Amino acid sequence: MTVDAVDARLLNELARLCVEAGRTILDVYEAESIAVRAKDDRSPVTEADERAEAILISGLAALFPHVPVIAEEASSRDGAPASAPETFLLVDPLDGTREFIARNGEFTVNVGLVSGGAPVAGCVHAPALGATWIGAAGLGASVARAASREIPASSAFQPIAARTAPAEGLCAVASRSHADPQTEAYLSTLPVAHRRSAGSSLKFCLVAEGEADVYPRFGPTMEWDTAAGHAVLAAAGGSVTSPDGGRFRYGKADAGFRNGGFVAWGRRSA
Predict the structure, then answer these.
(1) Which of 60, 110, 186, 221 has the most CB atoms at less than 10 Å from its CB?
(2) What are the pLDDT digits (tens) for 67-111?
(3) Which residues are annotated as a binding site for substrate?
(4) Quick one: which residues bind Mg(2+) 2 (predicted)?
């Protein structure tokens, strides 16, 4: 398939798939206890991660025939691919595992479509919050809010847009679980009037909806952590750059699909 084949119908089908994965996550989330084990990199993983990833990989094969999928748990288990194709999907079945374990609701299902080194379409679904964000180049971005297990109708999606920073100062959003000195140092150079904290890719969505203006991250992330939120934000009129303002690329197979630092912005003044 080509990137041009991404249309509103396909985005809605992607949202439906992410909600289905989210239902499986909620089955584990709402259980009496959550079994957690450590991966080789010492990051936590649960049964919910693995069950949701299986649903996503199966569903994406039908929605995006012949488009390779690079998924977090498969890459952790089997190793990341040695090279990146021109067009591929990045999947994080449960972004914010620490938030999931803490049961604060701030975890997401992330699926991003990458082409030419850039995210061109994506879906972020927050199962516990009943919120789903979708976006694609040329189609804009939108959000639907429903009951936590409900699949939103296509008519439920409402357009969203990143805002231009207000004159009184920026609203900055940062990680709830991964604060780091570099991020704090960077924020000290900006005219920040308000601060917010959030888990997972919800930070991208806050900027995409105009609820925040900047989200810097200097701590370690992987491409599947950011592709979906990046796609939604870009479709909403925002951007993601390297800290020096350069292009933030995807498909970094030589780096194991690890990201460097980045800054997500709302609309930038001309």
Answers:
(1) 110
(2) 999 999 888 787 788 899 999 999 999 999 889 999 999 999 999
(3) 72, 94-97, 225
(4) 92, 95, 225
Residue 108 neighbours by CB under 8 Å, 6+ apart: 92, 94, 95, 96, 124, 125, 126, 127, 200, 201, 202, 228
Q: How far is CA 107 from CA 48, 55, 129, 142, in A?
A: 12, 17, 9, 19
- Retrieve residue 187's tokens: 């924020």
Instruction: Determine which of 118-127, 209-218, 261-270 has the lowest per-residue pLDDT on average.
Output: 261-270
How far apart (Å, rounded) are the C-alpha atoms in residues 109 and 126? Answer: 6
Binding-site residues, please?
A: 72, 92, 94-97, 225
Residues forming the annotated binding site for Mg(2+)?
A: 72, 92, 94-95, 225
Chain-centroid distance of CA 130 in Å reads: 15
Confidence class for position 59, pLDDT limits 50, 70, 90: very high
Q: Considering only CA atoms, give the Rg of the chain.
A: 17
Predicted TM-score (pTM) of the model is: 0.95
Q: Which pair of tokens denotes residue 80?
A: 């990341």
Q: Tell me the C-alpha distance between 48 and 30, whole Å.
A: 11
Residues 6+ apart with CB under 8 A from 90: 70, 71, 110, 111, 112, 114, 119, 223, 224, 227, 228, 250, 257
Q: Is the distance from CB of 215 to CB of 261 less than 8 angstroms?
A: no
Domains along the chain with CATH numbers: 3-157 (3.30.540.10), 170-265 (3.40.190.80)
